[in-house]
Design brief:
Blueprint: H1 6-29, E1 32-33, E2 36-37, E3 50-52, E4 61-69, E5 75-82, E6 85-86, E7 99-106, E8 109-114, E9 118-121, E10 130-136, E11 142-145, E12 148-149, E13 151-155
Parallel strand pairs: 3-11, 6-7
Antiparallel strand pairs: 1-2, 4-5, 5-9, 7-8, 7-10, 10-13, 11-12
Length: 160
């Protein structure tokens, strides 16, 4: 068997260390957090505050939200808005009237950002009792009008 030189040995150790650290953290991503699968979470514990858009020329609104059972697994969520443009390309930037993204809360916990009118909710290992959508500015702040969030909620009476 050929003897490895010091540089090759060091490179092999670094590769093994990288693989080990990667395996450790990939297992952590699949842990659950407060009953929610972490792979569905974005930054559920971060609160970005709100922005009152009462003075904007046009006030966006959520007309309705619908949840359809997916034929493969989970659900498909449709968000029907008026005077609102989903703008993922501007996420994290300043507020531009009439655009932004949505936040999805399931059973009172934020689980995802939504950047279009359609969103797939994967199969969950807990029932969806309540689903809420908020419209958020590019800055992630919840849009409000006179202190009231632009939001829509679905309550699943079948899970009670």
């Amino acid at each position: 068997m050929k003897k490895l030189n010091g540089q090759t040995t060091c490179q092999l150790l670094m590769i093994l260390l990288g693989v080990g650290v990667g395996a450790y953290f990939s297992n952590k991503v699949n842990d659950t957090h407060g009953g929610l699968k972490a792979d569905l979470l974005t930054h559920s514990n971060m609160h970005h505050g709100s922005i009152d858009i009462s003075q904007d020329a046009v006030i966006p609104r959520i007309v309705n939200i619908e949840l359809f059972k997916d034929t493969m697994a989970g659900w498909n969520l449709h968000i029907n808005t008026k005077d609102f443009r989903f703008s993922p390309e501007n996420a994290g930037s300043q507020h531009i009237p009439g655009e932004g993204h949505a936040h999805l809360m399931i059973n009172g916990k934020k689980v995802a950002r939504i950047y279009s009118k359609w969103f797939h909710v994967p199969a969950l290992d807990y029932p969806i009792k309540e689903l809420e959508i908020t419209l958020n500015a590019n800055s992630h702040q919840v849009m409000t009008v006179n202190g009231k969030a632009i939001a829509r909620r679905l309550i699943n009476r079948e899970s009670e």
